[in-house]
TrEMBL record:
Protein name: Cyclic nucleotide-binding domain-containing protein
PANTHER family documented for this protein: CYCLIC NUCLEOTIDE-GATED ION CHANNEL 11, CYCLIC NUCLEOTIDE-GATED ION CHANNEL 15-RELATED-RELATED
SUPFAM superfamilies: cAMP-binding domain-like, Voltage-gated potassium channels
Record GO cellular component, one term: membrane
Taxonomic path: Eukaryota, Viridiplantae, Streptophyta, Embryophyta, Tracheophyta
SMART domains: cNMP
Signal sequence segment: none
The organism of origin for this protein: Brassica campestris (Field mustard)
Main localization of the protein described in the UniProt heading: membrane
Family from the record: Belongs to the cyclic nucleotide-gated cation channel (TC 1.A.1.5) family.
Length: 673
């Protein structure tokens, strides 16, 4: 029994130790998994932070531009095959091969980096929802996985380096007869997904910023670019199809004649070529389709222009590029009406595609240009109508020509600045919260520079922003003339004004304001209905844009502010009041004069005391003819006379500058506690 108990206790200890080891390893395993999860989350968070730190608008524009450039790079592969005119065989343009492969690889690498970012941070909304902004939407969890997989597949298919592999590996093989057709269909199969990925990009850019789609010239230029790009693509396919047509003609001629011992592989310069050049030259004559009378003559159809012009035999890339581009643009614009095709099904289908594509693209181009220009045309018509009404009114009132010119200049300036957009009506049409946000963004930064508004709370500052109105003054126009009533307080947002008061002239620029008399009037006499009169001339030195606050609105804001900040309001009212400034200057001058007078009296008293002490010492010493005392007395007398003359002139000056009456402080609605 004792042995059984010992054995049982031993097994219990072993089982407990085993349980401890299993528990320890399990905890380590869970800790390792959590660390990996945290690391993965941290990596994703870092990538997300990089996405958020990117400049949203510039990033979207760059990616959209790269996609458009990629569409222009792909057709370059179709220009690689060339016909050797001397040996009458097919070869390849090696310089164009290198150029096309390098550009295609660089663009695909850039877009591949974007795909990696987008795939790792897949909790970020796809391009059709947020697009390159890097921001997580509230509905990102509910985003359909089907859309995410679809766009991911489109991106992967778009960046596969199939054309590079073909031109680098198949071009030197002896069985490269089919390489042209494979290359053509490969470019076509990749061109479709590379075009699909542009649409969500363009829609997101136009919806997010409006800069590309809503600006008339950029939008119209983008549509025109797509139209010309399609012409270039059709020209490239036409070029390669012409070479294929020539290849078919040679193959058919060799198959029908016993004089030709060439195979299809021998038509390539890699295998030699040139042995039967004379036979190939006479077997495929270049005759226009309308001039063919014999059915045995090969009909080149719509590709006869490419063969006659010699672009298929040229290695001069600019020459054949522009010729093919012109062919595509001409036939796309003419909807393929001038094309004379053969009875080949592929050629007829190509002509039908050109006709339908031209019809669709031309309709889209005209519609978009009309849409982009319509709003501006409507505003221009409104401006012209307003200008005609203004001219009629000026003629009816018989205004002088100089005044008419100033009115025209002012109206033209307002049109250039606003483009016919009425800012006040536009803001009134927005929701209240959005309108407040816009007003804060526009006005608060400027108001914070003003001493009267820097301590205002947000609610009162919002009330001020809601009452501000935008004004524009042309160069050399008078804002306020001397003797006029000051109806508005101007806050300068752009430009410079000249302020002239009597013989003093000074400038005020961005961040400053004019019409401080109105501020003092609103603080000192809030119940008065008579606005102050300007003693200054305020004139626009340059084109001035600013915001004005009317007298009634200023009185309302001043009453609310004084109720909350009585001590600060008193200080500001004294600071910006002209009466308080004049009184303070006179008071300081009078105090300084009094100080100088007292100091002079004190100095004279000290001099007299020294004189008396010297005389007493001389009398006690019995020296009545002391030369030192005489000299000191003479110096003291001259000093006293000079000081008396200076003091007399100062007294006369003080009498001329009399101290004005002390201004009255404003009466605030509640006492300071």
């Amino acid at each position: 029994m004792l042995y059984i108990k010992d054995l049982k206790s031993c097994w219990i200890r072993r089982l407990s130790r085993l349980h401890f080891l299993v528990t320890n390893h399990t905890m380590r395993f869970h800790r390792l998994i959590s660390e990996q999860s945290v690391a993965s989350t941290s990596v994703r968070g870092r990538l997300k932070k990089i996405y958020k730190n990117m400049k949203t608008l510039n990033t979207r524009k760059i990616v959209l531009l790269v996609c458009l450039v990629a569409l222009a790079i792909d057709p370059l592969f179709l220009f690689i095959p060339v016909i050797d005119s001397h040996r009458l065989c097919f070869t390849y343009d090696k310089k164009l091969v290198a150029t096309a492969c390098v550009f295609r690889t660089l663009i695909d690498t850039f877009y591949g980096i974007h795909i990696i970012f987008h795939f790792i941070t897949k909790h970020i909304a796809p391009r059709s929802q947020v697009s390159f902004r890097g921001e997580t939407t509230v509905y990102s969890v509910a985003i359909s996985e089907r859309h995410l997989i679809f766009y991911f597949i489109v991106d992967i298919v778009s960046v596969l380096p199939i054309p590079q592999i073909m031109v680098l590996s198949l071009i030197k093989r002896s069985d490269s007869l089919v390489s042209k057709k494979i290359l053509k269909y490969t470019i076509l199969s990749q061109y479709i997904p590379r075009s699909i990925r542009i649409y969500p990009l363009f829609k997101e850019v136009s919806r997010s910023c409006g800069t590309v789609a809503e600006t008339k010239w950029i939008g119209a230029s983008l549509n025109l670019f797509l139209y010309m790009l399609q012409s270039y693509v059709f020209g490239a396919f036409w070029y390669l199809s012409a070479i294929e047509k020539k290849n078919r003609c040679w193959s058919d001629a060799c198959a029908k004649s016993s004089m030709c011992n060439l195979t299809n592989l021998d038509l390539y310069c890699v295998r030699g070529g040139g042995d039967n050049s004379h036979f190939l030259k006479i077997s495929c004559p270049l005759i226009d389709p309308g001039e063919i009378t014999n059915s045995t003559v090969f009909n080149f159809g719509m590709y006869i222009d490419a063969l006659k012009s010699g672009v298929v035999e040229s290695r001069d890339f600019p020459r054949k590029f522009f010729y093919c581009f012109w062919w595509g643009l001409r036939n796309l614009s003419a909807l393929g009406q001038n094309l004379e095709t053969s009875n080949s099904v592929g050629e007829i289908f190509f002509a039908i595609t050109i006709c339908v594509s031209g019809l669709l693209l031309f309709s889209v181009l005209i519609g978009n240009v009309q849409k982009y220009l319509q709003s501006t045309i409507v505003r221009i018509n409104e401006m012209e109508e307003k200008r005609r009404d203004t001219e009629k009114w000026m003629s009816y009132r018989m205004l002088p020509e100089s005044l008419k010119e100033r009115i025209r200049k002012s109206e033209d300036h307002k049109w250039r600045e606003t483009r016919g957009t009425k800012e006040e009506s536009f803001l009134r049409g927005l929701p209240k919260n959005l309108r407040l946000e816009i007003e804060r963004q526009i006005y608060q930064k400027l108001l914070k520079h003003m001493p009267w508004f820097e301590d205002m709370d947000d609610r009162l500052l919002d009330s001020v922003c809601a009452r501000l109105k935008t004004v524009i003054y042309t160069e050399d126009s008078y804002i306020v003339d001397e003797g006029e009533q000051i109806e508005n307080m101007l806050f300068i947002n752009r430009g410079t004004v000249i302020v002239t008061e009597k013989k003093t002239t000074f400038f005020r620029s961005v961040g400053e304001f004019c019409g401080e008399e109105l501020l003092s009037w609103a603080l000192l006499d809030p119940h008065s209905s008579c606005v102050p009169i300007s003693s200054m001339i305020i004139k626009a030195r340059t084109e001035v844009e600013g915001f004005v606050l009317s007298a009634d609105d200023l009185k309302f804001v001043a009453a609310q502010y004084c109720r909350l900040h009585r001590k600060k309001a008193r200080h500001i009212s004294r600071l910006h009041s002209r009466k308080w400034r004049n009184w303070a200057a006179c008071f300081i001058q009078a105090a300084w004069t009094e100080y100088c007078r007292r100091k002079l009296s004190k100095d004279l008293g000290e001099e007299e005391a020294k004189l008396h002490s010297t005389i007493q010492k001389d009398d006690s010493a019995g020296n009545t003819h002391n030369l030192g005392g005489t000299a000191f007395a003479s110096r003291l007398a001259s000093t006293v006379l000079r000081n008396l003359r200076v003091n007399a002139s100062r007294k006369d000056r003080v009498r001329q500058i009399s101290l004005p009456e002390k201004p009255v402080d404003p009466k605030f609605p509640m006492d300071e506690i």
